[in-house]
Amino acid sequence: MVIAGAGPVGMVAALLLARCGVPTVVLEEQPRRIAVGSRSICVQRDSLDILERAGVGAAVAESGVTWTRGRTYYREHQVAEITFPVLGDSAFPPFVNTPQSVVELLLEDRIAAEPLVEVRRGQRVVGVEQDADGVTVSTSDSEVLGSHLVGADGGHSAVRESLGLPFPGTSYSDKFLIADLRADLGLTVPERRFYFDPPWNPGRQVLLHPQPGGVWRIDWQVPHDFDLDAERAGDGLDRRIRAVVGHGDYEIIWLSVYRFHQRRVPAMRVGRVLLAGDAAHVMSPFGARGLNSGICDADNAAWKIALDRAGRAGPGLLASYDTERGAAAEENLRVTGETMRFLVPGTDADRAHRTDVLTRAVTDEHARDQIDSGRLAEPHHYPDSPLTTPVHPGAVPGAEPAAARRALPGRPAGVGHAAA
Ligand SMILES: Cc1cc2nc3c(=O)[nH]c(=O)nc-3n(C[C@H](O)[C@H](O)[C@H](O)COP(=O)(O)OP(=O)(O)OC[C@H]3O[C@@H](n4cnc5c(N)ncnc54)[C@H](O)[C@@H]3O)c2cc1C
What we know:
By secondary structure, the chain is an alpha+beta fold. The chain is 31% helix and 25% strand.
């Protein structure tokens, strides 16, 4: 069994397959792990549950910052405050902010202790062939045979390309400057803050997220012609940072400029090849659905591949990976797409809607529900999956007590959800 990519999704898939007794070879292009800018920080509870099965959930939770409060501002007004309920039977908090680099290191340590996983670094996947018996994965200098392949080789996936799959969707022209900074912001409890049109970034927005060790993720929407080198060369960057952190000391840990994309493959499975994580779908990070949904892809793929290898899967089991995770990708793209429409409106009508909602929200609490600064993911429900038993005709969701509703076929059992 082969996995392309030792990013977080590939590593989770390898560990979950090992848990099912399946040995994997993981082919990774990079000769060693490199920090590629500020990426994921917000790990959600259902991902922590999956990571725990991979052997690192508790360590990811312990090394992160737990936050339960979010505040939203429009200009100088606070227009919303939300506290996420701590619900359900899970041992984990609703969200934890742990940098992706830390999650990756924890996964890598766990893999080093797992004899069923072999990571081969410096192996760039360049081609894939398959027949009824298995897959042949070509790298720049070798060929690896396996029963199945998980393509977890990121947004520029070579596996996706080898399958001839397009990656349709949208790319936004707006840019985001993302900084990880160590600074004392004087807050007594860690919280997320979202500023729409603050006086110090007029017409645009700024997002703050706490991270462990007194580090803050600050995410500025910047003009499309923003030039980081020019800001660094003058005092623009310092002025920008000081508007958020004040006059105290700060230390820049990482700075990067991103554009965001909303794209997905038309099929997440072709024969014995399953695409997972960013190889299958990319989305704006507002809502923290990228890595979180990639971890769910890995979880969904692993047990199905294990049963297929053992000859215990029915004919439709592998196909259900695409049905289930394709629907999840669709939902995530719809939700993050709506958020981007609110954050970076592309039409006059969307711009007018945003201004209207934010202006009304200063005095009208009903308007506050329409502010969309990112909706955090809940586990995807699979009511329409071919694996889901039809609901008994008497089991009308609206007529049932809440506890029974949560246990409906296709829903995760016993997990309470937080709404953002
Ligand atoms: C600014 C920002 C903030 C984000 N915040 C969040 C957040 O809070 N929560 C969240 O859930 N998500 C977030 N995301 C998204 C998250 O970072 C990605 O979804 C996640 O990295 C996807 O993991 P992956 O393993 O699928 O891909 P990657 O992390 O891209 O890993 C792919 C791996 O494959 C390797 N590779 C590539 N090509 C080949 C090849 N041809 N052969 C072999 N190996 C190859 C790469 O070297 C890499 O190791 C954020 C993203 C950004 C940019």
